[in-house]
Amino acid sequence: MGSFRDQKILITGGSSGIGKLMAETFAGEGARVILWSNERIPLEAVAKEFGERGLHCATYLCDVSRPYSIYDTAKRVLAEHGPIDILINNAGVVSGRPLLEIADAEIRQTFDVNALAPIWLTRAFLPAMIERRRGHIVTIASAAGLIGAPGMTDYAASKHAAVGFDDALRAELRHLGHPEIRTTVVCPYFISTGMFEGASSATPLLPILTPEYATRRIVRAIRRKRRRLLLPRSVILVYPMRLLPTPIFDWIVRALGITRSMDRFTGRRPG
Questions:
Q1: Which of 155, 189, 213, 239 is catalytic?
Q2: 60 in active site
Q3: Lower CB count within 10 Å: N or C terminus of the chain?
């Protein structure tokens, strides 16, 4: 398995949750970690913590919902650190309410962060990867990118877009003669980081994942350059289920409790 020592790894949404946990793992192995976040205080806290622990960490304040912010920050990173070895598109947002209760601006924000930001970031850092003939682009999508549920119309649509982006990018890189640029898409069920506070699971087949478990599996998948990671493994059942007639598919989804999973969603509360 590969080593992360001296690898330059950029993680968006890196000031909390699995972004921060991944950063700790990579930095602990000697990687040169670069964290992006739109939250100044948590980002500064992470930088201070890493410094006190002797871990390498560079931080950048960036609003990934805005293309110009991404491109401007990417230029700074390339100028100050050079080409990136691993890009991890981790930043994400969720509204968690029925479609008619979500404001237009919230829907746009969901797509800007979950679906479009990975595209802008890839456009910013892929040219240098192609020039060096090496690189790895990781997209943290969601199991909601494979199957939707009530209260997740905008979120599921944005994560379907993220999964589709990875599929097309992987094929495009090979088609254009750049198979050395690897891609990995990660589709986890709910992770208990606070982002999906109140969301539930009605079946042992789809347990709520701990951040530590999810991080271990994601890091291992990146290390092994896996093309796709489904968490838990039972998420793979979505693929054969899709071959069933829609009424049967919908009945199974209801029986598994997926349609009720967001009924008590509250999300991450301020403070």
A1: 155
A2: no
A3: C
